[in-house]
Design brief:
CATH topology of the largest domain in chain C: OB fold (Dihydrolipoamide Acetyltransferase, E2P)
GO molecular function (chain B): mRNA 3'-UTR AU-rich region binding
CATH class of the largest domain in chain C: Mainly Beta
Order of helices and strands of chain B: HHEEEEEEHEEEEHEEH
CATH architecture of the largest domain in chain C: Beta Barrel
CATH superfamily of the largest domain in chain C: Nucleic acid-binding proteins
Family (chain B): Belongs to the RNase PH family.
Largest sheet of chain C: 6 strands, antiparallel
Order of helices and strands of chain C: EEEEEEEEEEEEEEHEEHH
Shape of chain C: globular
Radius of gyration of chain C: 20 Å
Number of domains of chain C: 3
Number of strands of chain C: 16
CATH topology of chain B: Ribosomal Protein S5, domain 2
Distance between the termini of chain C: 43 Å
Structural class of chain C: alpha+beta
Largest sheet of chain B: 6 strands, mixed
Main location (chain B): cytoplasm
Oligomer: heterotrimer
Radius of gyration of chain B: 22 Å
Number of strands of chain B: 12
Strand content of chain C: 35-45%
Keywords (chain B): Cytoplasm, Exosome, Nucleus, RNA-binding, rRNA processing
Number of domains of chain B: 1
CATH superfamily of chain B: GHMP Kinase, N-terminal domain
Distance between the termini of chain B: 69 Å
Strand content of chain B: 25-35%
Structural class of chain B: alpha+beta
Number of helices of chain B: 5
InterPro entries (chain B): ExoRNase_PH_dom1, ExoRNase_PH_dom2, ExoRNase_PH_dom2_sf, Exosome_comp_Rrp42_subfam, PNPase/RNase_PH_dom_sf, Ribosomal_Su5_D2-typ_SF, Rrp43
Helix content of chain B: 25-40%
């Protein structure tokens, strides 16, 4: 099936993924790319926590999200909230009480689906940092066009022209919905179509992550 | 061996999770509601006369006031035909010591932004929506959205014309046009409480319920039954079946709010 | 019997364990959740009979009792030193946790001094404690204590563990080489991602540093070969 997408992709095809771990010299870091969209995530921790933020029974997770251009605004604050609550559900925070796990996401290039890219980058960085997790989370974005077609992993151009924009995050084991953000106007049917397509795409992301880890371990020895 | 007994209040403070779970086992909530029952909601339109549009919304004990002020401004470079909406939520220590991130600005899209255009590329209306939370008792997001939407529907703008020679905008106070809203979306928020063996979906959570719940889902529907927003923060995973259930409850809730607002509008007209 | 590699795993993967015995031992990176066993780290799943663990890598140190660490003193409070060992919390080193230390005979260490110590208490809810007591009083195996002069190299935890298991072999080879040339060298491998070494000549320190940095991706045999062929002349 040929399509009229800007980059000649199929409707349900994600852009080529590129993952690089140990990108900066921190406890854990990763650069995740969906095509041109790139987010660098670095993790510090478990490390010392300010007394003010200290939790007696679990680790504090601090997320800061830095946009490509300009200074962080409300959108970035929302991204931080989303990342933090998603991470709190998968990281075994109870293993490291009274510590801080610091997550910094820096957008290096914004070409759409930036939140999904950031979530995936964070997952890779956490794996790199060796932080104990119950599961891993992967995210995929999609848009619904005015004519009802669903485009997976849209570029900036495709997001601007569309009816609604969705970001889904799934956990790896059960592929259940962990996080969802949908804006625009759409029907229930369309929503669940997006859900299913994103789930298929998320499986591809998981496979890619698995391959990367395998290669890294094989080369590290 | 003696067993120690606690007052219910002590138990609530020591073991808030277990306290709530005990209630939920009996399918009832600490404030006496059923799981699927919303708190009593009231809407009061046009309560602030100095604004272009305003509303006061109460959801249980949560109270928010929304006022909208219109100003003329230069349009954004990227969209010269459209005016814009600047929402701002104030959660002061007056309502609660906790701070919660306010609603994202995406609700602006309900408005047909073209109608705010006075003269292409020169002047547009800017609507400043200030939402103040007066009393915080959970689910402030729903209250804010209802407040914002009802206040918007209450907005009446003076007829404005752009005079090219003078580069000025003239507005006539005599002719007030109500804002043309393309749809009226209303929200419904759910908290999910993980009770070990089953997940409880609590509709319209109070502050106490919010603080111990593991997950929040907000769904915003419009009059055609279409969905405008689905927002889930990522605390625990859930299945499409659960989401479908939430969506259908959100639709019921839509009808409920729509009826309340309609009543209020009627009573306003009689006045 | 050596540990066998089973497969590469990601966090959340389920591990199916068939064991003849009723009892299995779960090592780092594995967690029991009701009836199933889940991985919590990415790495290679390894087993030896009924013991399982995940060989993973990280840079941040999480203290575990009995491990040897290289630390730096950063403060003195009351009767204890505060020591930075690279973990989330600073480790405590009581004044009396040294050989022959008494209330009157206190150790004389200052802020900034390096030492080699053993973790005596590791619990996630309290600050870790370390001591410098040597297991036997035989003078020859004095291991723990202050590390004078020298150089510190930071590296990943897995690499440190590997070096630690190769340590005796490396030292054997080095000893042979060095005995002939009469050069004094010391090395201390901390499992907290820090390797300390001291050589008389700066030149040797540079050689050591480069070998240790590059050897991370080599196999054990390759590494030992390099140590054998080290050029320590001049």
């Amino acid at each position: 099936m040929s399509s009229n997408r800007v980059d000649k992709r199929k409707f349900t095809e994600i852009r080529p993924i590129s993952i690089e771990q140990n990108y900066v010299n921190k406890d854990g870091s990763a650069l995740f790319k969906f095509g041109d969209s790139a987010v660098l995530c670095s993790i510090n921790g478990p490390t010392e926590v300010k007394v003010r933020d200290e939790k007696l029974d679990k680790a504090t997770i601090d997320v800061s999200f830095k946009p490509w251009i300009g200074s962080p605004g409300t959108n970035e604050k929302t991204h931080e909230l989303v990342l933090r609550s998603t991470l709190e559900s998968i990281i075994q925070t109870n293993l490291h009480p009274r510590t801080l796990i610091q997550v910094v996401c820096q957008v290096l290039m914004d070409d759409g689906s930036i939140l999904a890219t950031a979530i995936n980058a964070t997952t890779m960085a956490l794996i790199n940092a060796g932080i104990s997790m119950r599961d891993i989370v992967v995210a995929v974005s999609c848009v619904i066009c005015k004519d009802g077609t669903i485009l997976i992993d849209p570029k900036v151009q495709e997001i601007e022209e569309n009816q609604s924009f969705h970001t889904f995050a799934f956990n790896k084991v059960s592929l259940n919905l962990l996080f969802c953000e949908s804006f625009g106007v759409f029907t229930e049917q369309q929503y669940f179509d997006c859900y299913e397509l994103s789930k298929t795409a998320a499986q591809e992301v998981i496979n890619e992550i698995h391959n990367t880890i395998k290669n890294n371990i094989a080369n590290g020895r | 061996m003696s067993t120690q007994t606690y007052e219910a209040e002590t138990f609530r403070k020591l073991q808030p999770q277990e306290y709530l779970r005990k209630f939920l086992l009996k399918e009832v909530r600490p404030d006496g509601r059923e799981l699927k029952q919303f708190r009593q909601t009231t809407v009061n339109l046009g309560c602030i006369s100095t604004t272009n549009g305003s509303s006061l919304v109460r959801v249980g004990n949560t109270t928010v006031v929304c006022g909208i002020k219109a100003e003329v401004s230069i349009p954004r470079q990227t969209s010269i035909k459209e005016g814009y909406l600047v929402p701002n939520v104030e959660l002061s220590p007056m309502c609660s010591p906790k701070f919660k991130p306010g609603p994202p600005s995406e609700h602006a899209q309900v408005l047909n932004l073209n109608t705010l255009c006075i003269h292409e590329g020169a002047a547009v209306w800017v609507l400043y929506a200030d939402i103040v939370c007066v009393n915080y008792d959970g689910n402030v997001f729903d209250a804010c959205v209802i407040g914002l939407i009802t206040a918007l529907s209450n907005v009446k703008l003076p007829k404005a014309t752009f005079i090219e020679e003078e580069g000025l905008v003239k507005a006539t106070e005599e002719l007030l046009i109500p804002l043309n809203l393309s749809r009226l979306p209303y929200p419904a928020t759910f908290s999910i409480f993980d009770g070990g063996h089953r997940q409880y979906f609590l509709v319209d959570p109070t502050e106490v319920e919010e603080s111990v719940a593991h997950e929040v889902i907000t769904i915003i529907c419009d009059e055609a039954g279409q969905i405008c927003t689905v927002w889930k923060v990522g605390g625990i995973s859930c299945t499409p079946k659960h989401l479908k259930k939430c969506i259908s409850i959100a639709r019921e809730r839509y009808a409920e709010i729509a009826a309340i607002v309609e009543n209020e509008e009627k009573s306003n007209q009689i006045k | 019997m050596e540990f066998q590699s089973v497969r590469t795993v990601l966090p959340g993967d389920l591990v199916y364990v068939e064991s003849e015995k009723d009892e299995i031992i779960l090592g780092p990176g594995l967690m029991q959740n009701e009836e199933s066993i889940i991985c919590t780290k990415a790495g290679v799943l390894k087993r030896k009979e009924n013991s399982w663990f995940i060989d993973s890598d990280q840079k941040r140190y999480i203290p575990a009792t009995g491990e040897n660490v290289v630390g730096r003193i950063i403060g003195k409070i009351g009767e204890v030193y505060r020591v930075d060992i690279g973990s989330a919390h600073q480790a405590l080193l009581p004044f009396l946790a040294f050989d022959n230390a008494t209330k009157k005979n206190r150790p004389n260490l200052n802020i900034g001094d390096l030492l080699y110590a053993r973790i005596s208490l590791a619990n996630r809810d309290i600050d870790p404690e370390i001591d410098c007591k040597n297991p036997s009083t035989n003078k020859a195996d004095v291991v723990y204590g202050e590390l004078k002069k020298g150089f510190i190299l930071k590296c990943s935890l897995r690499y440190c563990r590997r070096l630690f298991s190769l340590e005796t072999k490396i030292i054997e080879i080095l000893d042979k080489k060095l005995a002939q040339k009469n050069i004094e060298t010391h090395i201390a491998i901390g499992l907290n991602g820090r390797i300390w070494f001291y050589t008389e000549k700066i030149k040797h320190a540079v050689v050591f540093y480069n070998v240790l940095k590059r050897a991370e991706t080599m196999s054990d045999d390759e590494f030992l070969e390099i140590v054998k062929n080290l050029d320590l002349d001049g």
